[in-house]
Write a structure and sequence with these properties.
alpha/beta; L-2-Hydroxyisocaproate Dehydrogenase, Chain A, domain 2; 2 domains; six-stranded parallel sheet; three-stranded antiparallel sheet; 14 strands; about 20% strand; binds ligand NAX; EC 1.1.1.37; L-malate dehydrogenase (NAD+) activity; Lactate/malate_DH_N; tricarboxylic acid cycle
């Protein structure tokens, strides 16, 4: 077996990680022949609970799990890491204004960005799942000036997978028949899942469905509000599906996206599709050799344009707010 890849995970005692860590340790990220070393970061009061999770990891005796280290100091936990999954974040609590939420997360992601900048391996890739994911990724990126900006992504793969599942159900086909789905914009209620560029069994999905009312009044709100529907049904937010999406995003980033298809990922905008630079926004993306490129020249109709613009405007507002707070 080769040298272990060091994978940092934050929020390691939380509910997403209760699924994520076991899959990482079992080889779901890099395959059965690549050992991983887990570096788990938590806040001090959660370290005791995290010790219990590590006991369970030990008890699985995963052949691909080379080592586990835990701690509450990002400068130690991130030392030499190749991949970082930033899952832990400060949730919005009752009475919290948006500025309070951005400041609380700003404190976390400025510190983690600086620590990654100082101690991570040269090939570090950083994926932010913790919300507000796009803007937290922007904060980490801006606080890590020595790490190339393209190494910072935020997660919209869960939204992408939700959109595939909804479209497949509507078309009466297996999920494998759906290709070229795109989530544009922010991982928030303004996100825009695009069926106009998607395909079902090689046919244009919007033309095949031929039901604009379903797209507008059913599909888009169902995908965008799926997180709230899961909270209403389960009593807590999506965890296993978020862990799955976090693995799939990082796996495709490292090992490449499937041939003949693309994925959705929130990446630093290069101005493609009129999305201004300076924000981390979701695009259709192809990955190969550890790097990503935005799929170019897709048709953006007026309906799509208005929705992409609205989500991008929200991201610009968030970026302006964290700039004003001195976080970036
Ligand atoms: P939990 O509240 O169960 O766990 C979060 C954990 O993060 C806690 O154990 C907490 O102690 C830890 N934490 C807080 N500050 C930390 C810090 N500075 N360093 C290290 N750890 C820290 O939340 P969970 O359900 O696991 O969700 C985690 C995040 O994912 C939340 O922000 C959530 O909103 C976000 N999500 C993002 C999704 C996406 O698609 N991008 C979907 C799922 C999820 O809603």
């Amino acid at each position: 077996m080769s040298t272990p890849v060091k994978v940092a995970v934050t929020g390691a005692a939380g509910q997403i990680c209760y699924s994520l860590l076991f899959r990482l340790a079992s080889g779901a990220l890099l395959g059965p022949d690549q050992p991983v070393e887990l570096r788990l970061l938590e806040i001090t009061p959660a370290l005791k609970a995290l010790e219990g999770v590590v006991m369970e990891l030990d008890d699985c005796a995963f052949p691909t799990l080379a080592k586990v280290e835990i701690g509450d100091d990002p400068n130690k936990v991130f030392d030499g890491v190749n991949l970082a999954m930033l899952v832990g974040a400060r949730p919005r609590t009752a009475g919290m204004e948006r500025g309070d939420l951005l400041s609380a997360n700003g404190a976390i992601f400025t510190a983690q960005g600086k620590a990654l900048n100082a101690v991570a391996a040269d090939d570090i890739k950083v994926l932010v799942t913790g919300n507000p994911a796009n803007t937290n990724a922007l904060i980490a990126m801006k606080n890590a000036p020595d790490i190339p900006t393209e190494r910072f992504n935020a997660l919209t793969r869960l939204d992408h997978n939700r959109a595939i599942s909804q479209l497949a159900a509507k078309a009466g086909v297996p999920v494998t028949a759906v290709k070229q789905m795109t989530i544009w914009g922010n991982h928030s209620a303004t996100q825009y899942p695009d069926v106009f560029n998607a395909e079902v069994n090689g046919q244009n999905a919007a033309a095949l469905i031929d039901d604009q009312a379903w797209i507008e009044n059913d599909f888009i709100p169902t995908v965008a509000k799926r997180g709230a529907a899961i909270i209403a049904a389960r009593g807590s937010s999506s965890a296993a599906s978020a862990a799955n999406a976090t693995i799939e995003h990082m796996r495709d980033w490292v090992l490449g996206s499937p041939a003949g298809d693309w994925i959705s990922a929130a990446v630093p905008s290069d101005g493609s599709y009129g999305v201004p630079e300076g924000i981390i926004s979701s695009f259709p993306v192809i990955t190969s050799g550890g790097t990503w490129t935005i799929v170019q020249d897709l048709d953006v109709n007026d309906f799509s344009r208005a929705r992409i613009d609205a989500s991008v405007a929200e991201l610009q507002d968030e970026a302006a707010a964290v700039t004003e707070l001195g976080l970036i």
